What does this fold into?
Amino acid sequence: MVEGNAAAEEMRAVVEMGRTAAGSDTPIAVEVGGADCLDNPTHFQTLLEDAEKPLYKDCSNFTKLSATIKLYNLKAKYGWSDRSFKDLLKLMKDMLPEENLLSDSLYAAKKTLSTLGLDYKKIHACPNDCIMYRKEFKDANDCPTCGMSRSKTNTKTKGVSRVPSKVLCCWPVMLVTYNLPPWLCMKRKFMMLTLLISGPKQPGNNIDVYLAPLIDDLKELWEVGIQTYDGYRDQSFTLKSVLLWTINDFPAYGNLSGYSVKGYKACPICVDNTHSSWLPKSRKICYRGHRQWLPLSHPYRKQKKAFDGEQLLDLAPKSLSGTEVLHRMQACNCVLGKTKEYWEHLHIHHILDVMHIEKNVLESLLGTLLDIPGKTKDGYTARLGLVDMKMRLELAPYAVGKKTCLPPACYTLSKEEKKKVCTSFIGMKVPDGYSSNISRLVSMKDLKLIGLKSHDCHVLMQQLLPIAIRGVLPKHVRIAITRMCMFFNEICNKEIECIWYVKLSCVDRYGTDGCTPLRGT
It folds into this structure.
């Protein structure tokens, strides 16, 4: 533990480094940790002492600091009011042995936590997502881009009120520490909430405006670092960090990367070589060419009738490196940049969240199998799209009097078969905490599943759906759906065996070059 003047000198060094990094007279440590840290460095000494003092005599489980943090964590987790938390502190103070060190008021607890730097900062933003009122715009009253007022207008007095038009308060941006073991890094207590972006609508492509404070912090952590105290070694060190990648769904991928994930070139891997075409009757863009990722001698490449009537012998395109992407972006006029000094050299920049993909796939699959209105992908316009592409003409819609009928496909279920599927879901029982009660999610009246959450879709896709469809679909359809469920099951495992990697890469019968058959197959 740092003694006497050493604590003051160490805190002074931290503050001086913060002033140098900020390039201003206002120290970062003062802004983040409290305005009294520089003038009263004994607060840092007090914090270290609270981390070592037992809560009461002979207590080995809790210190004064750890007890306060754990209780405040419960308050935040279960949404306790300040009044109830204050009464709880008083009660526990009386229940514990005499001369215990537990804070007896909410003010004392907050004062202890504020020394840790666990505060937050509200930043006003333009309602049109043009700028954030920080740095050179800190004292501005109107947006310099669109001219919108920073504050709301009082309808009664027709004057400007002090209420800001927009404050960060809704959409979360979290950071995950990746130098922890895989079984710890995604735990809630190791995630850091860095931003809350205002709602009710997401900022879309203007998310750059709201990420500016985070990007500034990341640049500081990469270039300068911050002085951090190591309680285990009882010493300070310079902490640095690097942003490895982002984890998001596909629309957010476009917002963060700046690449358009809509239109004729929506694939960020194929880019200019994306196989796409416009379907006028269904008014959608159709993406094809998936067979180019198969091995060169794969039989699917030469089949015509089963696909779009053409053979596909093209090689799979290579994804652009970070340097190539940066070179292309240099010609663009970007007002707010997304790049960092090391970003172009990373092998992976953005990762798609498998839970989002899994949920979307399952909802589309169940919507199509159960023919749920608004969810099915096999409707009238979809059949007209097949006619436009001259594919599966036996599924083309036809007229019967004044009605239009759709021929049943191999995956079309009758009403009785739909009831069997829904009844199977109702009869399934899983261990406590494994998932939601599936039977409550099934509507026998409408023959559909409602209120599915991401984890429910995860369990249904990987475990329950293959069981529910065993007796109602043709064999080749069942096998295709089951193999897709097995694919999601394998990629969600903590470990992927080499033999499964080969199978998931569609080269189970071919060599790594896609041409040479493997021995024994």
